[in-house]
Amino acid sequence: MTSTATTFTFRPLDPLKDAELLHGWVTHPKAAFWMMQDARLEDVERAYMEIAADPYHHALLGLSDGEPAFLVERYDPAQRELVGLYEPEPGDVGMHFLVAPTDTPVHGFTRAVITAVMAHLFADPETRRVVVEPDVRNKAVHALNEAVGFVPEREIRKPEKRALLSFCTRERFERAVAA
């Protein structure tokens, strides 16, 4: 981490105004697991317009000290992404996150981002458990997930990938960040 504390904030993503910024992020080689490597700007606009219109899926732009630094998607896994692939429980919230690529990485930044994302999700008293389904090959995100309290349950087959279904309860998250 840097010597000064970073302040993270969240705002709703504006699919049109933020599309150019997002396009640079999701097509970057470091975002290969986001599966939008060949997306055109219009594809990014369309994808996030669809999310903006979806009552079960929301996109947020994460800011670090006021500057765009990461993307968060929150979804209802009983309605999107994981329908029929596991037994949802009341209070389950699905999540994806993507940290903006940088030429000057800051040690611990991505872990700070996922911690802030989880705290944001659990700030909603209705959220009892966060569900993720990263690609089984994405070892870096598995380690990050484990660091904030996720426990892998099993591999699942999604149309676009083999995924590692993992869960994090509020209690596991609180224990992980207190350690």
Walk me through what this model shows:
Helix 1 (19-26) crosses helix 2 (41-53). 25% of the residues are buried. Strands 1-2-3-4-5-7-6 form a seven-stranded mixed β-sheet, with helices on both faces. It is built from five helices and seven strands. It has helices at residues 19-26, 41-53, 109-122, 139-147, 170-178, and strands spanning 8-12, 57-64, 67-75, 92-99, 129-132, 151-158, 161-169. With 179 residues, it is of the alpha+beta class.
Summary?
This protein is of the alpha+beta class and 179 residues long. It has helices at residues 19-26, 41-53, 109-122, 139-147, 170-178; strands at 8-12, 57-64, 67-75, 92-99, 129-132, 151-158, 161-169.
List the helices and strands and how they pair.
Blueprint: E1 8-12, H1 19-26, H2 41-53, E2 57-64, E3 67-75, E4 92-99, H3 109-122, E5 129-132, H4 139-147, E6 151-158, E7 161-169, H5 170-178
Parallel strand pairs: 4-5
Antiparallel strand pairs: 1-2, 2-3, 3-4, 5-7, 6-7
Helix pairs in contact: 1-2
How many β-strand runs?
7
**Low-pLDDT stretches:** none
Strand content: 25-35%
**For the largest beta sheet, what order do the strands appear in spatially?**
1-2-3-4-5-7-6
What is the CA–CA distance across the termini? 17 Å
Structural class: alpha+beta
Mean pLDDT across residues: 93
**Outline type:** globular
User: What's the order of the H and E elements?
Assistant: EHHEEEHEHEEH
Give the helix proportion (percent range).
Answer: 25-40%
**Rg (C-alpha, Å):** 16 Å
Largest sheet features: 7 strands, mixed
- Helix tally equals 5
